[in-house]
Amino acid sequence: MVAQNGKDLLIKLDMDNAGSFETIAGLRATRISFNAETVDVTSLESQGGWRELLGGAGVKSAAISGSGVFKDAATDARARQIFFDGEVPGFQVIVPDFGIIEGPFMVTALEYAGSHNGEASYEISMASAGALTFTAL
């Protein structure tokens, strides 16, 4: 993977729960992280006292976050709706020259900020709520 523009990492939201994905407008910074819990199976018989982990046994999760300015009433309204209604819609994260990560996410935080001489901004955080798929680009 060669150097990429950060603006090309996109977070898309399923607008109608029917697979109609739109980029969440106005985001200036985006991030996705993957995590996997470990299951420690170390015992007194572990060779040399080294820790042993059970492969494939831990819980996997992903988190998406972004921050930016308001640009699009439709995606802003949809993000607010899914937060307040507790929905778990589909999201896509497009990572340039890597692939598309897709699956259900829950909006876990939605923050708004602004100062009297600047633009209104927001931050959004999501946590995976089911199995994710990966499609290579």
Automatic annotation (TrEMBL):
<dbReference type="Pfam" id="PF06199">
    <property type="entry name" value="Phage_tail_2"/>
</dbReference>
<protein>
    <submittedName>
        <fullName>Tail protein</fullName>
    </submittedName>
</protein>
<dbReference type="InterPro" id="IPR011855">
    <property type="entry name" value="Phgtail_TP901_1"/>
</dbReference>
<dbReference type="InterPro" id="IPR022344">
    <property type="entry name" value="GTA_major-tail"/>
</dbReference>
